[in-house]
Write a structure and sequence with these properties.
Largest sheet: 8 strands, parallel
Order of helices and strands: EEEEEEHHEHEHEHEHEHHEHEHHEHEEE
Oligomer: single chain
Radius of gyration: 21 Å
Structural class: alpha/beta
Distance between the termini: 6 Å
Length: 400
């Protein structure tokens, strides 16, 4: 079906109901009432319509979602979590197609239409995890778009094979970005590590997405190094820093200063508000012109037992951690989980406007802020103009 009319939904708190004309997977028009005899009408009366949610940082290949409960055994230190996962992944059959599929279905039914997943790459497995994720991505390609980042969790400098595998994956188009982890704290040689990552990205025309857990002045120094590399390799708009704890723990004036530097260099940020780790202030970064997005990070894996894949719930956690109470501030986190995330992932501009992709979520909420704060059930989810989920279940037939 190439045409549909979404009937009677609201786009904001005080907005009158409107109809959206959907054609060839895009929003073609928005009017108070649209008469289209050849189009299927999709009821949205009383519902708030929001753009499809985008998860800008998850780890599908690590998840144990939907499997038997696994008690958490890792310690609190980053290296302990890394090594615990390394020791136990074989025992638990990670990555698991069953667990990944269960998580993807939960993401789709809660409104996620695009996800970027950081997939482990290291010499012992080569690109096997990337291929495993791609199998699941192909199975659900009509419900969700999945991007992969080749993530060298044990370091890109650890062996020549790691870099070689990343280059092979980049060359054949399997990854949209090359990942990285703490150029100082994990790699031990920040300049060499960043050189390696940025050289791969520049050679193969892909992005860079770096996990930065390091705190204090060491973490801020690495942000500076990342901005310099972004300018040097002409990758503005294609470089992201995930977590950035050093920035989140800084005072507001320091965050403003660094926000200006990141915006000037074209470097974006993604936060997941994980546990009690610092969160960059969304309002401060937005005022500075930084694209700041949100991701779920790990969902029920060997790094932690929490998570359900719901990006509205994750946006609520970010709003809560930022201390947001007013509607306009809470609404910034929904924008981060939709429009800003799309920008970070290099997607067409997201939103509910003519010309935008028809990725739409219908929720029973009075306003965007209410949707974030209360995380109501999703009435239906649309991907590329086709309803792919209703009332918490996938639509598996030919429904438009």
């Amino acid at each position: 079906m190439n045409q549909a009319v979404v009937s009677g939904g609201r786009l904001g708190a005080a907005d009158e109901p409107v109809d959206l004309f959907i054609q060839h997977g895009h929003i073609a028009a928005i009017e108070p009432y649209i008469e289209a005899h050849d189009a299927t009408r999709i009821e949205a009366s009383g519902l708030l319509l929001v753009p499809g949610l985008v998860d800008a940082h998850c780890h599908l290949d690590k998840t144990l979602f939907g499997l038997d409960w696994v008690p958490h055994t890792a310690g609190a230190d980053l290296r302990d979590r890394i090594e615990t996962e390394r020791a136990r992944r074989g025992e638990l059959g990670v990555p698991s197609d069953t667990a990944m599929a269960a998580l993807v279905e939960a993401m789709v039914t809660s409104g996620t239409t695009v996800a970027r997943t950081h997939t482990d790459v290291f010499p012992e497995v080569g690109g096997a995890h990337v291929r495993a994720v791609q199998r699941v991505a192909d199975r659900y390609r009509h419900q969700i778009e999945i991007q992969q980042v080749g993530f060298p969790q044990y370091g890109v400098l650890s062996s020549p094979e790691t870099r070689g595998v990343l280059e092979e994956l980049a060359a054949d188009g399997s990854i949209a970005a090359v990942g990285g982890i703490d150029p100082a704290g994990v790699e031990g040689d920040p300049v060499a590590a960043l050189d390696a990552l940025f050289e791969i990205a520049a050679q193969y025309g892909i992005g860079v997405d770096i996990h930065l857990h390091d705190h204090g002045t060491l973490g801020l120094w690495q942000l500076e190094a990342i901005t310099r590399h972004t300018t040097r390799f002409d990758l503005a708009g294609r470089v992201n820093v995930s977590h950035a704890y050093a920035l989140g723990e800084a005072d507001v004036d320091t965050q403003r200063l660094w926000g200006a530097k990141l915006a000037d260099a074209g470097v974006s940020l993604v936060t997941a508000a994980v546990y009690d780790f610092p969160v960059p202030q969304v309002d401060v970064m937005r005022a500075a012109g930084v694209a700041l997005g949100i991701g779920n990070d790990g969902v029920r894996d060997l790094w932690g037992p929490y998570g359900d894949g719901d990006m509205l719930r994750r946006a609520m956690l970010v709003a809560y951690r930022c201390g947001f109470r007013r509607d306009e501030l809470i609404g910034l986190t929904l924008d981060a989980a939709t429009t800003q995330n799309a920008r970070i992932l290099g997607l067409p501009p997201a939103g509910l406007a003519p010309g935008a992709p028809a990725d739409i979520v219908a929720v029973a909420a009075d306003s965007p802020a209410a949707a974030v704060a209360t995380c109501p059930p999703r009435s239906w989810v649309m991907k590329n103009g086709r309803v792919v989920a209703r009332d918490g279940a996938l639509v598996r037939g030919d429904e438009p």
